[in-house]
Amino acid sequence: MTRKKLPHYLIEKNNLIVQVTISVLFAIAFLAVYIPLSDTTTAWFSLEEQDKFIYTAFFIIFSTIFLIFSRVMMFYMSKRIIRFTFPKFILWTLGEIILIGLFHAYISLRIMHIEEYTHALIIGKSILITFIALGFPFIVTDLSFALLDAQRVLKIARRVIQTNDNNSTQITPKNTQNETIITENPDIINFHDYAGALKFTVKLENIYYIKAEGNYVNVFYNNKGGISSFVLRNKIQAIEDTFAGTPLMRCHRTYIVNSNNIKLIRTEDDGYFIDFNQPGLEPVPVSKTYSEKIAKRFTEI
């Protein structure tokens, strides 16, 4: 049995930035409260005494840089090298906490020469305090990201329910190991979710455009003469990469369009817009980054 891939919101760039910022601020506030109450591992911590303040500031700055570097590595490795699962994510996070705790213990033992307590006590308590100072904001922010993601799903689902017909031409096949479900027909487009599971199949000629909705994409397509949509959990960048070389082309950071269904490209004061050969569809913007590519494709149609 394969383990599910980690939800995107836990390793999304903006969320990682927010998490590191909140965690560092919380850790500083926690230490400011805890320092006066401790007589062991934080004996050299001080925000008032000049000599101790220098070491305290050094520890906080170094730990922050390490945490930023670690999360940058996590982000890029998740894109290219590691398929993150919950156990891997938890082990990575615990590794960060343990290393920062060991760094604190090293300063206590080798630089500040605290000898009143055993090495085991100092190392153990350093890791424990680091776990409290960073573990709590890590957990709270991760739960907040999960809640915000669930709210986005509900918002999109409500909008889709309002626009979808009960009779749909979409195919939602079961993804089992004993069933071959991927067609090689170039006129059929198979949409997979972020974990690689096939979720939605539709004819290429029926697709109008695909719109990014956070960690989801919304596929707008022709359904018996009307307009329907299907919500899929995936990144628009992954969709673009999957269908490179097909009529499905990126025209904006938020949109992919089916160039076969473009009616015209018009110029407005605030840029270029695409209109489709289907009444009722909203115009899709074209950013400068993709305008030349879209214009070239449009002249070939």
Could you give the distance between the termini?
46 Å
Let me know the average pLDDT.
80
DSSP, total strands: 10
Count of separate structural domains: 2
Q: State the helical fraction.
A: 40-55%
> What is the number of helices?
6
Structural class by helix and strand composition:
alpha+beta
Which descriptor suits the 3D outline?
A: elongated
Sketch the topology as an H/E string, one letter per element.
HHHHEEEEEHEEEEEH
Question: What ranges have pLDDT less than 50 throughout 5 or more consecutive residues?
Answer: 163-183
What does this structure look like?
This protein is an alpha+beta fold and 301 residues long. It folds into two domains: 8-159, no CATH class; 188-300, Beta Barrel (OB fold (Dihydrolipoamide Acetyltransferase, E2P)), CATH 2.40.50. Helices cover 48% and strands 19% of the residues. It contains six helices and ten strands, in the order ααααβββββαβββββα. It has helices spanning 13-34, 50-80, 86-111, 119-163, 236-242, 288-300; strands at 188-192, 198-203, 207-213, 216-223, 226-233, 248-250, 255-258, 262-268, 271-276, 284-286. The strands form three sheets. Strands 5-4-3-7-6 form a five-stranded antiparallel sheet, covered by helices on one side. It has a three-stranded antiparallel sheet with strand order 8-9-10. A two-stranded antiparallel ribbon has the order 1-2. A hairpin with a 2-residue loop joins β4 (216-223) and β5. α1 (13-34) packs antiparallel against α4. It is elongated. It starts with 12 loop residues before the first helix and ends with a helix. The model is unreliable at 163-183 (pLDDT under 50).
